[in-house]
Amino acid sequence: MFGGIICIASYVSFGRAIATNRILIYKNSYNPHCREWPQPVLLKSMEEGNLGFPVWDPRVNLADRFHLMPIITPAYPQQNSTYNVTMSTRQIMMEEFKTGEFRSNNNS
Question: Which domain range does residue 30 map to?
């Protein structure tokens, strides 16, 4: 699950090396709690590798269709770093994202 949070941070900060977290979220208008899950977060486009490793693809792998909060790693083979997120942990994370957004917008 923490790998997914790191990927979200990378997604938000991509291209902005010198900025505070508050500025990054504001500039990107990226709010994970507003995202249409299970639409995956992709740091780069998916690539087909010829090494034979399975990659995350809900069109091919039945189990991938049931992931609730897919955040896909950028390196081959692409995998869902939040495959173990359940409905309850996703709800907790969404509430924490809302709290973080509120605090960053209100300087609390």
Answer: 2-106
